[in-house]
Structures
1.
Amino acid sequence: MIKETFNPNPELAANAAIKNMDEYWALQNKALEDYEGFWKEYADEKIDWLAPYDQVLDESDAPFYKWFINGKLNVSNQCIDRHLADKADKTAILFEGDRGDVEQITYAQLSLRVNRMANLLRNEFGVGKGDRVVLYMPMIPEAAYAMLACARIGAIHSIVFGGFSTEALKDRIEDAEAKLVITADGAYRKGKPYMLKQVVDDALSQGGKSVEAVLVVKRNNEEINWIEGRDHDYNELITSQHAECPFELMDSEDPLFLLYTSGSTGKPKGVQHASAGYILWAQMTMEWVFDLKEDDVYWCTADIGWITGHTYIVYGPLAAGTTTLMFEGVPTYPDAGRAWKMVQDHKINQFYTAPTAIRVLHKMGEHEPEKYDLSSLKVLGTVGEPIDPPAWKWYYETVGNSKCAIVDTWWQTETGGHMISPLPGATPIRPGCATFALPGIIAEVIDPDGTSKKVGETGLLCITRPWPSMIRNIWGDPERYKKAYFGDAVKDGKPVYFSGDGAVVDEDGYITITGRVDDVINVSGHRMGTAEIEAAVKKDDSVAEVAVVGRPHEIKGESIFIYIVLKEGHINKDIKNHINALLAAEIGNIAKADHIIEVPGLPKTRSGKIMRRILRSIAKHEEITQDISTLEDPSIVKEIETKAREA
């Protein structure tokens, strides 16, 4: 079968960082022939080392790999100080608020503000190297200042998405044993103020005993509750802080941040990333995948509460010395032309968003891009899930005028940065296909025993060599780290990193991601473990059993579908609203389910295992092809199907 392929724009390719597939394969072959030499060359070129490293890679305690042994650096220096000699007056962060207010923050101004915040954290609150600081922040510049200030003094930040609930925030504060929480009174969304501080108050009233203070940024100036002795006004304190703050000398392997992500068990995992390897790959992928040039203006629409915001709003762009746009609002407010007006006004060159956003923008304003001058665009990116061909076509033809490269990036919180992606000047693109692993990344589709899958056969997508930006540990739980990421597949007798995704390789070597093979649902690019959702639902006293699966959704990619068995004698006529209110309180609004149905029982094997494959088929209205004769009660399947049809 002939696959539709789009070749790179020759004008873009002529000046690209990687200009053609010959250059790509030369780099990849170089990595295969001399893996450590490949990474050494880039580490020496890209990082401003404050003390040299002794060894590129230490594999002696696999899978606890270590990179650039004994090297010293500071990520804040990598993102700010080293640019001041030639980029002091260049815009580092271009901020646009929900209401249209715009602020341009130069690298010199960024240096001043980060230094002041670092002094505030260090001198007023006693935050130092290794201390954990939780950020529960909106998309405002102070969030970036806080991240970089923590990096400057060696503190470990853990950002909690501002849409997460009291319970989710409390759990993350407690697991990290945070010393300080930084938040805001609130922010603006769709023209109206929304509140954050109350969620912090509620979380700390239920737990988080390690927290000594709360630092509050005033953004929307709504009335909030102040707790004497614990809460402190950032806007008041920051003005008296000194403008210079010496940065901490950090080891390559010192943790930079924790970021909690859902897994296939109920408790979120504190993904731990190290300093040197993470910032190296963040910068390399910014330069390769987005093909940055000196005067480019780059916009990633993600939130800093997710890994995309960490790597591709703050750390990667600033390490590369580019101008990065932070946006407080949503791209469809006040209308579906907001994003395209911003591209026009700010002359955006790279636009990076989620397929969910693309589908919404397409649905709400198919012809809106035609009303604006989008000629500045060069690279269009997608993140969070594979982009479906219809959305890809509209993105390419209407938004990009059939001239822009589309980089459909595959990566994870745990990988730190892009793993598989087209290169805008080199890769012939196929809609819906992740294409090839980036240079230096050894991605293979294998069986659990390490056997390579044949062309067209779906297998486990594994990264079979360690890479610099990889997860280093799960905070406080090394056994879970080994089991979660290195317990499913081996290669040459050694455990290798299994992504949790299935994939297939075609006859040309193109990799297509087929989706999760574990119990994780990807809603609008946000991964949530089914076990975490089930644990929340089970807190309702009327629920006897629950099973959660994903269902395809034309906008969100996947939606949440919940089967509930009520306890005997319990009746709940408003079960959907009731359970969704519980999920919003326990996890956040992103966990609300589109479908919640009450069923008489769940399909189980005689050993008690719930057969979720059957439930997924029912949710999708697919014919049941699995053998149900081994179920404890095969008749339950028909009853569930009837209930699902009625829902």
Note: The mean pLDDT is 92.
2.
Amino acid sequence: MTAALPINRILISAQKLADAGQYLEAHAAYLEILSRFPENVRARDGLKALTEPARIVPHEGDSAANLAKAMGRMKALAVAGAHAEALQIARPLAARYPDAVELQFALGIIEERLGNRAAAIAAHTAAIKAQPTFTAALLRLATLLADIGEFKAGIAFNMEAVRVEPFNADMHRLLGAALMRAGDAAKAASAFGAAIALAPAEWTLLTDRGLAHHHAGAYAAALADYDRALHLVRDDAAAAEIHIKRGNALRDCLRHEDAAAAFRTALAHEPQSEVALCNLGQVLGEMGRAGEAAETLRAALAIDPAYASAHANLANWTTYRAGHPHIAEMEALLEQEQRSGARTRLNFALGTAYDATGQSERAFAHLSAANAARYAERPYDPDHVERQFAAIAKVFEAGALPAWQGRTDDGPRPLFIVGMPRSGSSLAEQILAAHPEVDGAGETGAFERAAQPLIAGLEAGEAPCQAIIGEVRAAYRAAIAELPLSAPVVVDKSLSNTRRVGLIAAVFPEARFVLMSRDAVATGWSIYKHDFTGAGNSYASDLAAIGHYMRQEAALVARWGQLFPGRILPLDYRDLTEEPAVTTRMLLAFCGLKFNPACLAPHMVERPVMTASAGQVRQPIYAGSSAVWQRYAAHLGPLIMALGDLGGDAAAVARAARSAVRAA
């Protein structure tokens, strides 16, 4: 065993292994020394040397001077941006020296610059094959693979870079960033934690981990990281950045007053921060303070008149009439704006404005442009979606999953509102939240995060056991406990839970579900009108895709109705608005709640609302919004064709359920 050898002998052996091109063996030897003597300088230097490209040895007949001259010329051309000319030198050289790490890496970078992604991946792979400890190539491969959506493969190279350089905080940071990009915020937080352990005084790492905790729903941990970072920063710009991040986390955990205070503190550090003003305006609007929201957003635009996000937020809190000056302002900006993302946001905002003024053709033109741009960013894959829904349905072919058999009094009773976006879920939540025994949690996303161990097991063909179900239950309870809620009943209206009804029913056998439905064309058109930025809403940017997705979801919802009779209340938005008293009584009875007259005035509830319906739910219940789509009927052929008779069927189910409850 090498552990019994003197350190000097291991160091000499490691150097010989490196010189012979046995990089992984040399790496293991250096790590062995550092495991016993963490501060050994020679071992640390040896480990670092393994990450640098090995020297190129000229072939017989090639002079070192000529080789150096060719490489110098290649690099100079690349630096000057003449990548096509650099490629003419790099490719023949790399073919002649396939094991020359520096050459293969340079070729990979040049291929990248020219957009030759496959060739770049091949070159970087060749570099790693020649020298597996060359972390620069590992990181380039990781990025290239992530760029084409191969996140799992890319992260494997990030992890290898960490293994090669375990004492380098940057390697752990880059792994964390890759995990964030892949949507695994919890693992990203762990990676950033490893970086912090190596560089505890680096405040940016704390903010990185804070953001990861935020996205994982661990709000208390996120705020703790931001507070630690604030103790380390010394300049106002950095402090403002951290307070903005704190405000975003506070907003998402429903602490809107605290979020507003955080944004105001950011402004105390940076009075000209248009981002802090924009975020403050959004929070004020969600709190029902529309006038203050609009004033704050105009202040942001006074600093940066081209700030598209501020224009889009302002559109949410503005009552438009023909000739409103904000419309002309946005049109003028759109003519000059070149950035795709900004143009998309402006087009959505203009669509909202023209729709409000009754200028349907102009509204549709802007909405069509916005959605076309959004669809280009994230096209809808109907085959992939069908496979997803089929996989969910397959799990429940034989019936419901075994339910949790433990305690059910371990926290507030959960009530889940499910269905399509824009189907009336915000109104239903607001009605329930008006009840003194109910808190509305909004769209938490908590179950999706908590259920990952259960989902992974089912995908692997494993039968769920009580231990895993209990783990998911505890994780969801912990996530809800992060929110400022105290009522005995909590409403979760994360609409992604529509896919998870079967899992939720197993984890929470005491839970009930309210399934919102609305005229299908009205729902589809309302989805198309709104800027849904989440990756899971790729269907929202195309009328035919919306119809296709709604049919997939409708089939799954029908299966839930078969599996869980009596636990799902189909609730039609039209009934809720045309007969609010009768329908509200039915809703409360289904939820096991006594009637309370406050539920008939949901617009009076003082609570933040963080959905596209934030303005609507603060108005008295009104009917007729489902007929608005008819002004656009000439444009909605693809949606109507894709939906078929889905709308009528959904409404009929809801009305039949209401009639049955009334008769009982």
Note: DSSP finds 33 helices and five strands in the chain.
3.
Amino acid sequence: MQQSLQPLVPAPLAYKPERTRSNLFTALLRAAREFGANKPILVDGDERILTYKDIIRACFGLGSALKKGTKRGESVGVMLPTGAGAVVAFFAVTAYGRVPAMLNFTAGSKNLKAAMRAAKVKRLITAHKFVELGGLESLIAGLSKSVKIVYLEDVREKLSIGDKVAAVAGPALPTFVGAALNHKQPGVILFTSGTEGDPKGVVLSHENVMANVEQVRAHIGLSPDTDIVFNPLPTFHCFGLTVGALLPIIAGVKVIFHPSPLQPKEIVRRIRESGATILLATDTFISQYARTGADGDLDSVRLAVCGAERVKDETRDYVRRKFNIEILEGYGATEASPVVAANQWEHNKPGTVGRLMASMESRLVPVEGMPEGGRLHIRGPNIMMGYLRPSNPGVIEKLPDGWHDTGDIVDIDEEGFVRILGRVKRFAKIGGEMVSLAVVENCAAAVWPDHMHAAVTLPDPKKGEQVVLLSEAPEAARTPILSWAQSHGVPEISVPRRVFKVAQIPVLGTGKVDYSAVQTEAERLMND
């Protein structure tokens, strides 16, 4: 058990807006100069170590080959697990003026086709090994009817003399490619989950992503000398891409990649062996890692940065008690590149997601039936260029005056700490009162802290809506939740009308609950 974590904490840095006015590939080249081209910066899932020089050479060589059949400004799909391949493909596409579109391989054929249609993707980069290990053969076969599939292994085997020359000469003469990219141009396209209709493309400029890299670096404080980031989160998710891959590489902090967050035993072992100091996770995943790990396994971790879902009090207490790890909870949206707010080591207020990033503005729009807080609108250098929709391919739908409506209801206290009250769509209106589905889930989590729970709404003939809870707890029932609510002063309206025990709560590849699947299952159970 660690005696004291305080001496390991680097002082927060000043936010440097001038560093945001470069494109992402130039930022990679700058990092190589700043921290040394031979610095080991990336460790892959198979323990292969890459230096800046390795990454840059691979980017020039592969990028020269991958650009064939595409033109500058065109979107190129990237569908790879978290690791060296995804990073190299990202920067290789960027180096030659193409825009990587990061595709969620867990989204299913329908959503992937809609995403590629929105971004006008004609080529998709993946790997034979990944397709084989992931059992994605039928998915790829279906996608190959609408896009050209390019396998990294095939490209490497067929590199031309020109591609090999580019690999060697490119790092010495970078001005003819990446340096010419304007930081205001699209730098990457990510996609919403598609649980509320067709997925939308989120277009982030180089400046948007670079701004968030610098905002997070200034906010949290990272040390290139002592910190090691462990990232098991997918790069098709903005948290996994910006914070888990681009930030450490640009900031000179060694990053350990793991191809899936769903392997707690392997992850705990690799954290121990690598001496990682910063763990990126979600509440669901860090709870699994903490319960899997034995004493000493996570002692090197000084803090865990958690996003994508609310951190439960039970998770925070358990992780702190067992491993003396402080969880910094944050809040983000793909549209914000993604980090909007985060707690800090020296300013950590549990129950909140911390303060807004530097140079961000916010406004709260009142919501009917909600006596406190409001619907959060945000603006700043990290806010997206706009959406791409399958119904209007390739056309960026810009934001009015740069303001993004998050769809989240929040409260901001006098110190600037943001408290998430819930998503507008995650409230039920019962007898004229607004009930947060998150509160319903929290009540269940208080009764059965070791199990997952998910609440959704279904129509109710008398009260408009009713709340139905799905739970993995073997003894799941309504009565224990009602008893807990009554003894803790929680109104009965926050107790679900029906409770169903299920074997497993559906989860998206990002670690979030798949509420669309939960809704479908709840409807089925109610009708059985």
Note: The first helix runs from residue 24 to 35.
4.
Amino acid sequence: MAHKARGRRNTAALVAAATMAFGLGAPGAAAAPTPRIDLRVLVVDDGSGTVAALTDQLRGTGIPYTTVDLRDPGRPVIDAAFLADTGGSTPRARYQGVVLPDEAPFGSPASAEQQALEAYERTYGIPQVDAYTWAHPEVGLDYTSDGGWAGTLDGQPAAVTAAGKAGWFGYLDGAFAFEDNSPSVPESYGYVARPRAGFTSYVDTAVPGGTGRGSLLGEYAHDGRRELVVTFAYNGYQQQFRLLARGIVEWLTQGVHLGQARNYFAVHVDDVLAPDSRWDTARNCTPGDFDCAGGDGPGTTPIRMTADDAAYAAQWQRDHGFTLDMVFNAGSGEEWKSEHGGTDALADRLLADKAQYRWINHTWTHQYLGCVQDTTTVPWSCAKNADGTTQWMSRSAISAEIRNDHDWAVAKGLPLDRTELVTGEHSGLKTLPQQPTDNPNLAGALADNGVKWTASDNSREPGQRPVGSALTVPRYPMNVYYNVGTKAEMADEYNWIYTSRADGGSGVCENNPGSTCLPAPLDTATGYDDVIVPQEARTDLGHALSNDPRPHYAHQSNLAEDRILYPVLDKVLADYRALFADSTPLENPRQSAIGTELQRRAAWQTALANNRVTAYRVGGTLTVTAPSGVQIPVTVPEGTKKQLLLGTSTFGTPYAGRRSAWTAPELLQSSVTLKLP
């Protein structure tokens, strides 16, 4: 990777012209007016993955930004008029921060655009992020040949420095490591270098093969400007970026911005009280499925939690400070009870601990709520009426499945929220390819029962959408299968799916471009703990670190027998707590709160896309205006007050060293006004 040093021209004349225009520093001049700084970020993009990762972070947080694509011949020119408006009585800076691909992306440090941008940053105190650059003196670092190093960082330990922990990266505990998921294919390249004068390292690492430590991310203050210099490559999915992205954004905005970001992890346990069919390791299919002929084979008895499993679940929650959502089928439980002597120790134990869980209606008997299924073919199809129209489950039948489960819960005193629902297999919603539309009777049945939030499968429908007056809540399916109760069964089915035909698998991985075959089958005795658990925990933790509130789901079978869900949850929670400070807890919201969060985000993004949000800071006062009814997400420093009609109140709730919240104008006010400390 070759680079050459870049020179700079003196910009004193430009700075002098700018300051004189505002009456700043002129002998005898009156005090300059305090400028208005808009809460918007300028992103200069050259197509690099690092800029894309930061842009995604801005979008996901809810921060408005403007992108200038250097590859677009029709792009606007970045000059003084583009960056600021000085025509009125109050100078207006249009951007609170700037993201560049590197420190000088305009072809030459002496280019007019580079000079205009640097003058703007000096004049208004605007920070600049260099998304990825090499180590050299012009970014405040020694060359790597002077006691540094350049190369692949996969697996390299790194740490937040004392300066980083005292500042923008204080939400992290300190130590972390670069991902090393594919040793044969390097994923992260970077430069480890010694800081020069004016450079404060926020993240560093030991110099590989050398002595001392070198910076990977830090602030370079020089020439009246500040740059956040990142000297390692990354993409938006790598854990090291996900860990540091929050701090990069907070530095870029100096802790005052629209939008908010938190780390979320919620887990739904489906089919509680019902039994789940068991994977047949001999026939490589699941009895009860349409493609598994012959009924139950030897050793394929259904999987169902016991009272001891329920007691373990309650104790696990207490030990870990984490609440599971029990998604229950009471009718299936009643059927089990009647078939087993009229008693059910599992139900008794769960009901004794009912206040320790959140409960969600999963319908009475887990019926398929979509079209009537014709199972005479594989795969199944929707049954047709004589006139060729689709046969649908009726509104009254769907409503009964929802109502009966809810009424049982009320009678048992379960603390559930009537507005939440998870249908069996997410049925009733469209299921491709057999059922390309929702059951037209579903929306009415949801309304009949007061359901506002119905779960959907994120692997099929990642976006929230309406179903009549209700909204979906997409859920992540966990790669812990519903039809296994032991680690050996899980590894066996995993092998069937992810190994080639030559290795005894189904070959599905060979035919699916989105899949990769295992180099060799997993050892069924050790494969679950050694391979599947770390992979699934990494995936789930990645969702949690992405400001993604969507819940994950597994099944009651995974809390039975070998209790295989717990190793995944244990690793997610342990890894999280090892990475983050106590000021940044893992949020564990219920389904209705998740649905509300997704709904607010969608409305906010629509308002931003339609340019209907105005937000700016003048000195210590922040003013935000948005369309009526749209909640506004804001992140600010501790000590910020919200202006009320009479007096003020403390704004937001604390998280990661800042305060944030969804907010709206008070009664008789047209905008939100915050007083910064």
Note: Residues 1-29 have pLDDT under 50 and may be disordered.
